[in-house]
Amino acid sequence: MAVQAQTDVTATYIKNAGFDEAPIHYTVAGGTVLTAGVERIGTVGWIFPVPEWRNESVINNNAVQVASGEYGTVANAQGFNNVAVPATDRNGNSAGAAISMSAGWGDKAMYAQDAILPSGRYVLKMDVYNAHTVATVAYNYFGFIPLDGTPTYSKRLNYPSNQWVQDSVSFFLTDETIGKINLGFTTSSGGSGNGAKFFLDNVQLIYYGIDKSVLKQLIDSATVMKNNPQDVGASTAYAELNLAITAAQAIHDKTNASATEVLAAELSIREAIEKVHSAILLQSRVTTWTTLPYDATEAILNPSFEDLFDDTWENVGPFQRQNNTSFDPFKLGTFYAERWISSPGNLENLRMSQIVRNIPNGTYLVTAAAHAVQQNDNTYPGGAYLIGNGAITEIFDRKDYSVIAEVVDNTLEIGVEVAFSGNWVAFDNFRLSYISDGSPYLVASVKDLNFTPTQTVKTFVVSGGNLTGNVSLSVSPSFQLSKTSLSASEVMAGAEVTVTAVATQAVPEDNLVISYGNVQQVVRLSLTEKMEVTRRGLFFDQSLSSEGSFAIVGDIYGSATVTAPEGLIVSGTTFTNTEVADSAAVLLIWDGVTRIEDKYIYVTSGSVKDSVLVFAVSDNIISTWDGDDAEGDASLITNFGWSLMMSDGVTPVAGAFNPFGATSGIRYVLTTNQNYVYRGKPWQGGRLAYLRTWGDPPTNVYNLNVNLEAGKTYAFRGVASWHDNASTNPTFTIGLNTGMSNTGTSLASQGHEFAVKRTTADYQFVVTPTVSGTHYLTISSNVVGDAMISPLYLAMYETVLTSTPSVNDGSVRVYPTVTTDKVMIETSGKTGMVRAYDSTGKLVTSARLKGDVQALELPAKGIYLLQLQVENTVQTVKVIRAN
Description:
mainly beta, Jelly Rolls, Substrate Binding Domain Of Dnak, Chain:A, Domain 2, 7 domains, eight-stranded mixed beta sheet, about 10% helix, flat
């Protein structure tokens, strides 16, 4: 067939280009039309046959959906992946059909048909409608794939939501070529919801014949470049450009030039232009990278993987981009690169590399953060390597690694190679330093050495090159070196140096200086004490245990001192550095009377400090929210004032109110069985409520009865968090109202309403009711679906304390305080309870106080704390059994 330039040859080479041929999977008139060729992929994928098009999808995770549908169909048909066919095509026509195509988890959705095309230039076009809210895809496979040769794909990766656009890709064939027209794409390694979901229509193929317009544009651009030369040093790039211009002009002027000649001329002039660009860039770097070492990281493309690997890194494996926090704190930015398989598997024969081009010859230091780990036994087997032009450094635990590389042809290959390693290799933050142009250089294997009172010895390696004399090392008297002078041969071979901290107090900052003439490397030194507590918060009230504990752990020179608020008795106020190194347990008892509103237990050692927040009230009017008896087999949260009502405040919600310890539904659980973190440390509490809602949470409200008096001022104190379930990012709101489910008068004007955060956090407000009676602490959600919140502690109490009998009123006597077997307790006719705790905080015995004088036997020699609760007073007495 004879064809002319710029001719639409779609009908000649592409069949069913508009996807209108039957069978169509979903029609306006007939509904779903299933065909015998439909293929179910796992539990989420659907592949429907499209006439004349061949399914060539690459499916590893069952995450491809392809189907066809007529315009105007709105149902979520199988294969549409939760989106609907648009009402019309790109031109506004409602007749005809389109195919739906979506993919996730790295799977590739691809359909193709064969074509034999004559030589010449082509443009392949296709209408694309993105029916999803995410506008991007990871890879676009729309294009022409020759049987032998390199595919040509569209570069487009962004498609605006709910709009038609026309995608296109051009390609040039030097001879008649057998190949295939290909449609397809993939999202990232996440699910299909992380990428666009397409409807495709109207594939077109336009033929432009032996077109010389591109060649003419290249000749013009190259001529402008030749006439405006820049500094390229000794490079012959401009001479080669002139030759390419002359040869290209001859082909352009040749009336019977073949497609092969035109394409060859284009390639030649493109290469000449690129060579000039490279020569200009190289010379610019030669003239500016003169102060060594020079940070040359700018020469690396995509050094921290914030962009896709395409066109920047050669990826054999493949490695994937990951945006979680598992590689912290060495992840730079949002993404890092990794390959992970289930442990105890082994990764092997992987490689990701990049050729850094147009850099001055000399010596470079390549640095990257990396690890190679076997997670099942938490070992670091090595077998992965940081590479730089043939030089390698083996990778083990997570840290920065460096390799010294020589550049002789203005190119440097960098990357990571895995021969045989653990199940997880990860890396990020490639850096490049130009350290020598042939001049002497020094490299220290570390930038920082951090010491503690018990970790006083560290080693590192000094390397270098182009040296003819000795290298000196110096430190302050706070440190000692195994060597203060190294020969040139030692340094060039890599010399190990040991540093010992000899100071007896903290040294916040110091330097180790390595010198060779005016060439220096500095290693920062520090000697620091470390100390922290294992809890961040302790909460008490009259219905919860008055006992608490935390531990002090660290590495310090002196002792740790504990200072507690009034009302707390602690098992010790001073702990030695040995005790702290072994984790010093601090036991404490609240006296049951003293109000402690967000005060702190302070732990100090020299300049190192940490603290534990303490909250304690003896008049918590909602203390039964979790109840002393919540652990009973038949205990339900409804027994302690909770209800779940519709937003009308009248209609109960059918919910699964399960007993304490149940594994689902609305119930109480022990916090010791839950993984909650409060202010960065494990939460310590008694039990918590799991408040879970299904269906339509905005119409459902949890209510907790609170009896308040008008005119009094009350403080609310809470700790709560929400956590993942089926809903994404639910928002829970805590409020206070005179009516159930917020149907009465809200006290919002006093600033009490706030959204609960995902991380466990503090919540508090102060209110003054205008009416007396039952109020309702309310918890509501904004998410329709399955959502869950966990209140860990709730309290409401008067801000002004009423008077309480003094614990020192003489009504309770304990004697003798030093005994050989037992103590006597006299309560002046009053009843109560006594509990005895040993020095570890363990309850060893208890007894009811009946109002008379009675004896309490102490089980063994030691120090005891007696907690005496008599009517509405609590006091603590320390006694000793001497033998």
